[in-house]
Amino acid sequence: xxxxxTFLDKLFHVITIAGTAILMNLLFLVSCLPVxxxxxxxxxxxxxxxxxxxGDKWFExxxxxxxxRFLRGTIAWCVMLPVNVYMxxxxxxxxxxxxxxxxxxxxxxxxxxxxxxxxxxxxxxYVPTKISLWVKNAANxxxxxxxxxxxxxxxxxxxxxxxxxxxxxxFYAIMIFIAAYFSMSALCATFALKEPLMLYLxxxxxxxxxxxxxxxxxxxxxxxxxE
Length: 227
What we know:
The protein is an all-alpha fold and 227 residues long. It contains 10 helices and no strands. The protein has helices at residues 7-31, 38-54, 58-67, 70-97, 100-126, 131-144, 146-165, 167-192, 194-206, 216-226. Helix 2 (38-54) packs antiparallel against helix 3 and helix 2 packs across helix 5 (100-126). It is globular and about 60 Å long.
């Protein structure tokens, strides 16, 4: 029979999890410093979370997610970043001016662009296909899995939303963002988006459009499919 865990064992386990989350979060923030690498840094963070859940080395997961198809992911982020920023500034302008209808319209448009950005990045890493199918799948994901994708997208952009709309709230929460916020949001995104990702992966393998990939990411996808 299994030995019953003592209070100290449970406490050490919690501390270990918290410490790992903090280290992941700090590595993510450092990787975001060039700005153009923020998209790939988020993919690396999701990779780190997924590896850690399996008991593998989380740093290897971060490195694999960050480096995998780096150029294409970076270009996608650089294209979508100005679009998202424009929508955010439009939302801020409507909010400050008290324009209700424009504010609702800006919020809807921002949600759509943020969701598309998230879909492009995560599909680029975990369901490698040719560019045309990649973009098509990302657009489909926005409409087929809107609630899960919206939750992941808004969680990613929440610090920026707070900074623009409620700056005082942002400064109150800044230590949470620095400590472990993005690790927790990546954890939630990993569980929330697992089902649609596996669906696209199975479809791509069935119709032969999945590109041949080597290394840890391929192994990770295989493990996800088995689960």
